[in-house]
Structures are given as structure tokens and as C-alpha cells.
Amino acid sequence: MNVADYTRLGAAALSGKVRSGEVAPSEVVRAAFERARDIGAGPDALNIFLHADEDASVTETKEVQEHLDSAADVGILAGVPIAIKDNIASLGLPTTCASRILGGYVSPFEATVVTRLRANGAVIIAKTNMDEFAMGSSTENSAFGPTRNPHDIRCVPGGSSGGSAAAVASGITPIALGSETGGSVRQPAAFCGVVGVKPTYGRVSRYGLVAFASSLDQIGVLGRTVDDAAIALEIIAGFDKSDSTSSDADVPIYRVSALGKPAPEARQPDTEAMRIGRSPVPLPPPPGPETLKGIVIGKPKEYFPDSLDPSIKSHCERALDRFRSMGATVRDVSLPRSPLAIPVYYVLAPAEASSNLARFDGVRYGLRVDPGKGLKPMYDATRSQGFGAEVTRRILLGTYVLSAGYYDAYYKKAQAVRTLIADDFRAVFADGVHAIFTPTTPTPAFPIGAISDPYEMYLNDIFTVTANLAGVPAISVPIGRVRRLPVGGQIIAAHFDEYTMFRVAYALEAALGAEAHQ
Amino acid sequence: MAVTRDDVLHIAELARLGIDAARADALTAELSSILAHMEVLSQVDTAQVPPAAGVGAGGTPLRPDATIPPLIERALESFAPAMRDGFFIVPRLATHEDSSESGA
Fold first, then answer.
1. Substitution target from B78, B90, B96 for chain A, most A beta carbons within 10 A
2. Which of A184, A246, A338, A354 is labelled catalytic?
3. Rounded mean pLDDT of A171-187?
4. To 10 degrees, what angle do helices A389-402 and A341-356 make?
5. Cβ neighbours of A91 in B, within 8 Å
6. How many degrees, rounded to 5, is the angle at CA A477 between CA A476 and CA A478?
């Protein structure tokens, strides 16, 4: 398959060519690896992958080919190469969380999301670089070196899912999986000019996701287009008996939202045909004056401070104008407790991490460093040599805020303020707002090594972390460029209303067209 | 609330992290700086606000009360640092020297 053709096609179109027999799945996978070589995905350049095996990936396509040969339904992602963040368990390729403490570890089981993607014909070709244990906003905290932004190799790709965002942005895969705790899919999506989705807490099974902060973690999707992301999310969403936090709420047909209509109360034959596995044809979203008729978009003043980069503000205003031109009403709203989100997050997430990462102790898996002086020195040596600086810092911070004498002042207090932050969102949505629009990040991508102060780095998540604390779904969509670097706009919806989130995102993407990347 | 060097060494011991002297000094400054930004939370009136106990729009569903065997496709021995007869092998809890010092 021609690499130029490959990088131009979305997941549905690629799958369509495979299903029609025009292209063999093995050719598609070969094209993905050829693109990776062309673009310099290796450790000497972009450093996107931690583990990739071309021959094994091509071998994996045999099953897809056998289904095609026997005329069996191979699913909407037939032969589509997908990259997976290295904190999601996969059989065959290691799962290291970009940490020395899990160097070379190969999981004995597979994450539910990976199983579901494979069941729909996808081929997992690589595990992507990330901030160690997903702790970071730049992918500089990887034990295996930073990933570089495909738009400017001097800059970070964002993080912690920086490798997944770079894989999609550089045209290696149309879809990649990432994970979010405070913005780790949306922020790199914005920095790399791709689409990134954080679903509602509970929407997607976390079975097989290495835990960081369990009340916040969610697996998310990065896609070249909104349609790529919608297809992938629909496949991985839904109840999983292996994850007690997964919801049994019905999964709507997200692609139908591209038609610019409310979610059908019952599935109709014409919309059911768009369900995954039935129709591989991307829907043509025609933006018009009634595409978003009846939709109310909230513009929260706290996310448009005077200090916001004027170019980012300008791109956001252009997006808001597009919403209005498609029939939506834009309403000023307030999420007054959002400025407290970073302090709340950096109490709660490290607290949960200090507990979750206790399991990495040199006993059951991963690295063991044994000075030969007994059990406790083995723990100390394994963990101090296995964890990097940021993970160590957060474990200590989490241990501190949970320790006797400080629990009420920090942890309990942060949990109460989290309630207030979530209440702010509930109040806005209860007042008739269907979606909230904000910039995804306060700045475009910054140069590698430019931020050394930990708290300054944490502020990268200032516009994304509230959705994690409130548990609501959010998507980042490209809305333009600032100083030649991509920036994203964020659409936040109410709990389990990914349908409306996608409806607004499809419309914005179509309305901006090429402007989204200018 | 500033963190002291002793605080850092204490929580490092609780967290089973070996921290050398130079790193302890740097971490003392870093953690104090980060925690200073958390002080804003103390100014928020939360007297009548319950701590967040969940973030979803509904409860988590129950599943049948049945054992689900883990789908382990590789033997524990393939990734554990040390195993024998199906058990994880760990260093002694204390050396003979440690035991005598503690009077055990």
C-alpha cells in the first residue's frame, strides 16, 4: 500500500479498503511501519515507541485475513494499525509504564480495551512512550528518553500520552490509546494537532490499565479525526465485569451524532446501520445554520483569563463564532471553583499513587535490587533505583498528605473541594447548557527542558484537570496554530453524554475545515 | 506548611524509598514549594460539604457473585524476580545481626 495514501485515510476508510479486498491487512501494517521509518519514530529521533515488532504485527494480520477469506464479519477496524500507551496491558509486547522498575515486563493478561479492539479487527503494532507511570505533562519523565513533537522536534509532544499523540500526529496510526488522570490525552492531543477524548469516569473498562490514581484514571482515545475517535471509543466503551468501576449505561452510536441531530431515543434501522461493524463509510457532516440548532454552549469565564495567550483566545473566539453560525447559542457561564482544581488534584492524585505504586517492591514482578542486607533494604533499593525523580516526588507528596496529622488538612479538605468543583459542573448543565467550550491548554507546546519547576509543569493541566475531578467527558479538537504549533479547543459534556460532546466536535471540525490546522 | 528534612526522611521510610542526603535536601525544598500552593484550600469553607466519594453519574453495577478465574496466559515464574515451588522468594525479614541488635 502506498504510504501517502495510508497517512491520508481515516480508520473507517482504511478498514473499508481492507474489507473490500482492495488492500490486504498485512499491506496496511507494512505501510504503518514504513511511515514510522520515514518519519523517524525511533529512539534517535522522535522516540515515539517503546516496543514495536513489525514481523509479529504482520503475523497478527493473518487472523484478520482468515476472517476476510471466510466472509466473516471482521469489524469496523479490520486491519487498522493501532498504537497503545505503555501502561495498558498487552500480550506479546512489554508493558513497562516507561519505568525502569518494570523494564522488560510482559503482562500475562490483556486489557479489556485491547481485547475489544482486536475483536473488531484492529492490529496492535506498538506500545508508545509516556511519562513514567503517566506522571507528567511533557513525556520528558520517561526512563527511556523524551518523545519529540512531530511539528517541531525541539518541543515536547505533551504528556503523559505523548507517544500516542505523536504516533497519530505523524501519520503512523490513525488511532492510538492513551490514559488520563488530569489531562494526559487532551493536552498532548492539543500540542500535536490531533483529537483526544477523555470519556466519563466508568464509561471504559480500566481492567489492564496500570493504576495511578484510581478515582481519576480513565483510558482515552487519540484520533486523526473526530470520526476516528468516535469509532474507537464506541468499541472500547461499555460494561466489563472485570472492572467494578465500569458502568452498564448504554453506549449510543456516537457516529450518528455527526448528522447534527439529538440522540435517537430508540435505535432506528437507518441509524443502526451506522453502528460499528455495519457501515465502514464515514458520515459526511454538513455544517449548516441548523447543525447545532437548540444547542447551548457554555463559555466559562474562569477558562478565559486576561493572561491567556491572545492567539489562543482568538482561535477560541473563532470556534465560538462557528458554533453561532451553526445555530448554537453561546452563553457566558461560571465554574467558580475551577481555579482550585490544580491544588486539589495534586493532593488527591499523589495520595492515591502512593498507595497504588506500593505494589512495585521487587517481590512479584519487575526490577529487584538486593543489597543482601534483608527485606527492607531490598524494598528501599529497588524502589529508589526503579522510580524516576517525578514518581519519587509524587509518592513522597502522597505519603505526606495521607500521614497522621496532615490527612484532614490536605486529603479530606481536597476531597471536599472536589465535591464543590463537581457541583459547579452539575449546576451549569442543569441550567440548560449542553456543552462547555474552553481552550485545552494555556499555551502551545513548549521547548524540551524549558520547564524545571514541578508546580509550573503541573499548571499545564489547568484547563483539563477539572473534567477528571468531576468525572465528566471531554474532547480536544484542533482549532488552529499559534507560532506554527497546534492548539486545541476543549468541549466538555455532562456525565455519559459523549453523544452531545461528539455532535459538537463533529460540527466544529467540519466548520473549521482546513482552518483547524492553520 | 514547610516540610522539614526530617519529615522527608520519615515519609521516605514510610514509602520504602531509599533517599540519600543530597536528594533529601532537594526534596525538602521541592515538597515545601508544592505544598505552599495547596494552602489556598484551607481558605475554602467546606464545613457543610461532604468529601467526594465518587464522581460518576450512578452507582457501579453489581456482577454475579461468582468466581472469575484470571486469564493468566504466562506463568508467574516468567516475570517474578524469584520463585520456588510456586512461592515468591524474598530476602530475610532481618539479618542475624539485625535480629541480635533488636534483642529478637
1. B90
2. A184
3. 98
4. 100
5. 73
6. 125
- Rounded Cα distance, A289 and A165, in Å: 33
Q: Which of A122, A103, A314 is nearest to A223 (CA)?
A: A122
Compute the distance between CA of residue A443 and CA of residue A270 in angstroms, rounded to an integer. Answer: 42
Q: Which three cell numbers stand for residue A443?
A: 499555551
User: What is the three-class DSSP state of A180?
Assistant: strand
3-state DSSP call for residue A5?
helix
- pLDDT given for residue A244 in this prediction: 87
Q: Which of A160, A179, A205, A257 is catalytic?
A: A160
Query: How many whole angstroms separate alpha carbon B52 and alpha carbon B63?
Result: 24
Our separate counts of H helices and E strands in chain B read 3, 2
pLDDT higher than threshold 90 for residue B69 = no
pLDDT at A236 over 80: yes
Per-residue pLDDT of B4-47, as tens digits, reads 999 999 999 999 999 998 899 999 999 999 999 999 999 999 99
How large a percentage of chain A has pLDDT more than 70? 96
Torsion of CA A316, A318, A319, A322, to 10 degrees: 160
Q: Where are the domains of chain A?
A: 3-290+439-517
Burial class (CB in 10 A: 0-12, 13-18, 19+), A375: middle
Q: What does the DSSP assignment read for chain B?
A: -PPPHHHHHHHHHHTT----HHHHHHHHHHHHHHHHHHGGGGGS--TT-PPP---SSSPPPP--S--------S-GGGT-SSEETTEE----SS-HHHHHHTT-
- Tell me the residue type at A75: G
Cell of A449: 527542558
CATH 3.90.1300.10 fits A3-290+439-517, yes or no: yes
Q: How far apart are CA A390 and CA A394, in angstroms?
A: 6
Which A residues, 421 through 440, put their C-beta within 8 Å of a C-beta on chain B? 422
Report phi then psi at A474, rounded to 5: -155, 150
Q: Given its phi and psi angles, is residue A512 left (phi above 0), alpha (psi -120 to 50 degrees) or beta?
A: alpha
Q: Which residue of B has its CA nearest to A411?
A: B51
**Average confidence (pLDDT) over A146-152:** 98
ipTM above 0.85, yes or no: yes
Place of cell 520517561: A142
**Contacts A416 to B, Cβ<8 Å:** 44, 46, 49-52
> How does pLDDT run across A77-123, given as a tens digit for each residue?
999 999 999 999 999 899 999 999 999 899 999 999 999 999 999 99
